[in-house]
Amino acid sequence: STSLMLFTRDLRVRDNPALAAACRADRTVPLFVFDDALLDGPFAAPNRVRFLLDALADLRESLRGRGGDLVMRRGDPVTEVARLARETGATELFLADERSAYARRRLAGLEELDLKVTACPGITVVPPGDLTPSGGDHYRVFTPYWRAWEASRWRPAAATPRAVRLPPGLTAGPLPDLTALTAGTPSPDLAEGGETAGRRRLARWLRDDAADYDEVHDDLAADRTSRLSPYLKFGCVSPREAAEAGPTGFRRQLAWRDFHHQVAAAFPDLPRADYRPRGRRWNHDEDAFAAWCEGLTGVPIVDAGMRQLQREGFMHNRARLVTASFLTRDLGIDWRRGLGHFNDWLADGDIADNAGNWQWVAGTGNSTRPDQVMNPLRQASRYDPSGAYVRRHLPELADLEGRTAHHPWTLPPDRRGALAYPPPILDLD
Ligand code: FAD
After folding, report:
1. Is 229 in the pocket of ligand 1 (CB under 6 A)?
2. Ligand 1 within 6 A of 124 CB?
3. Cα 367 to Cα 335: distance, rounded to the nearest angstrom
4. Which of 5, 142, 287, 369 is in the most buried spot, having the most CB atoms within 10 Å?
5. How many CA within 13 A on the CB side of residue 274?
6. In a domain? residue 274
7. CA of 207 to the centre of ligand 1 (A)
8. What is the Å distance from ligand 1's center to 317 Cα?
9. pLDDT one-digit tens code per residue, 312-347
C-alpha cells in the first residue's frame, strides 16, 4: 500500500504520530504544499516564511537520510493531494490534527477525496477538546484547565521512522527561495528554523537554564526562557517531548499554549471578536500607534520590547505583556491592531496564542482580573532592575547608567537634550 503524509505545522521526524503512522505503509510520500491561500494573507510574514524554509530544508535532509525525500508543491493542498494520490496510487492520507477554522475547512476538503484520511495528534500536548469541564464545552479559565491538564495521561511517544520508502519515479521539486514566497526582509537576528536547531536549543536550555526557570523566566535582561516558541509553532520540536523534559513552571507555560488552542477551537472568532465583550471604545490615534510599532513612544521599557521584536522576530514574554498593556490600557488602542503588528513580525506568531494573549491583556479575554493594568515603570524596575534590557535594545540609551535608562526624562536638561530619543508620548504619572 502507499500512503501520503501531508506535513503542515508538524515539521519534524521525531515524535510525529502522523508520520509514524504513514511510514507503516509499504511506500510513503512525504508532502508539503505551499498553500496559496496562506501565502496571500497575513500569515506569510517574512520572519515566519524564512523560519519555515529553514524547517523544510532540515526536514528534507532528515527524510533523505532515511531513504525518502520531501515532495514540495505549490497551490491548493486539496488539489495537490488529489493529484499526487492519482500519480502514486496512494490510498491513505495522514496529517496532524489541527483545529483552526482554516485547518478544519482543509480537512473537510481532504475528506471528500477518494482516500482514507487520518488526522493524528501532535500539535499540542493535550489535543483541544480532550479535556472538558463538567457541563461545559471548553475551559474558560486557566487554573482549572491546568489542574486537569497536569492530571491527564498523555499519548505515548511516536516512533521515529527508521526508513522512508518512496514510490518509484517521484520528483520532489526544489525548495523555493524566500522572494518567491513573500515580499519583505526577515529580521537580522532571526533564529534559525528546523528540527535540528530546535532540538539543539531544547537540549542546551534543559542543561543550562531549566533548573531555575521559575526564578529567572521573568527577568528581561537574563533572557533565559527556552525560546522554543517558533519551533513549537512550526512543530520542529514536539510539545509533548518538551513538556516531559521540562520543569513544572515550564510545563505550565506549555499548558497555557494548549489552553489557548482549546479556546480558539471552541471559539474560532478569537482573533477578531472580543471573547468577553467589555463595550470599551478604542482610540484611533494613528501617530501613537505608529510610535508604538516603531519603538518610539519615549517609554524605554516599551520601546525596548518593540525594537527586540523587529530585530529578532521574537520578544520576551514579559515585554509582550508590558507593550500590549501599554497599547491597550495606556494608549487605549484596539488590541486587534497590536495583534496585527505582532503577527507581522513574530516568528512564533500563532493565531490562537497571539489572540488569546492579546485578549487576556486587553481585558476582553480569559483573565480572572480583567481590570488589572500594568504600570510600565513598575514593571521596568521589577523585571529589568539594572536597565540592561533597555540598554541592549535601545542604542540611544546605551550610555545611561542603571535605572536611569528607564526614565531619561528625569535627567538634567542638557543630558536629556543630547539623547536622540523622544519624550514620552503620554504622562506616566
Ligand atoms: P518559555 O517561557 O520558555 O515557555 C515555553 C513555551 O510555552 C513557549 O515556547 C510557548 O510555546 C509556551 N508559552 C509560554 N507562555 C505562553 C503564553 N502566555 N501563551 C501561550 N503559550 C505560551 N506565543 C506564541 O507562541 N505565539 C504568539 O503569537 C504569541 N503572542 C503573544 C502575544 C502577547 C500579547 C503575549 C503577552 C504573549 C504572546 N505569546 C505568544 C506567549 C509568550 O509570550 C511566548 O510564547 C513566549 O514569550 C515564548 O518564549 P519562550 O519560548 O522562551 O517561552
Report:
1. yes
2. no
3. 15
4. 5
5. 15
6. no
7. 21
8. 6
9. 999 999 999 999 999 999 999 999 999 999 999 999
- Residue 107 alpha carbon to ligand 1 centre in Å: 27
Give a yes or no: residue 414 inside a domain: yes
255-260 average pLDDT score? 98
d(CA 135, CA 137): 7
Question: Which set of grid coordinates corresponds to residue 429?
Answer: 504619572
> pLDDT band for position 53 (50/70/90)?
very high
257 CB less than 6 Å from ligand 1? Answer: yes
For strand 116-120 and strand 92-96, is the pairing parallel, antiparallel, or unpaired? parallel
Distances (CA, A) of 338 to 298, 360, 362: 18, 13, 10
The response to whether residue 346 sits with its C-beta less than 6 Å from ligand 1 reads: yes
- Domain span at residue 250? 129-156+197-266
311 plus 260 within the same structural domain: no
Single-letter residue type at 72: M
Residue 88 CA from chain centroid, whole number: 34
Tell me: do 105 and 20 sit in the same domain.
Answer: yes
Q: What is the CATH number of the domain that holds 23?
A: 3.40.50.620
Whether 110 and 12 share a structural domain: yes
The atom of ligand 1 lying closest to the CA of 321 is 36
Ligand 1 lined by 320 (C-beta under 6 Å)? yes
| Other CB atoms within 10 Å distance of the CB of residue 82 | 18
Within a domain: residue 163? no
Question: Domain check: are 397 and 338 in the same one?
Answer: yes
Residue 248 domain flag: yes
Please say if the pLDDT value at position 429 is more than 80. no
CATH number at residue 338: 1.10.579.10
Residue 250, ligand 1, Cβ within 6 A:
yes
Q: Report CA(229)–ligand 1 centroid distance (Å).
A: 6
Query: Residue 358: CB within 6 Å of ligand 1?
Result: yes
Number of domains in the chain: 3
- Candidates 244, 252, 246; CA nearest to 226 is 246
ipTM above 0.95, yes or no: yes
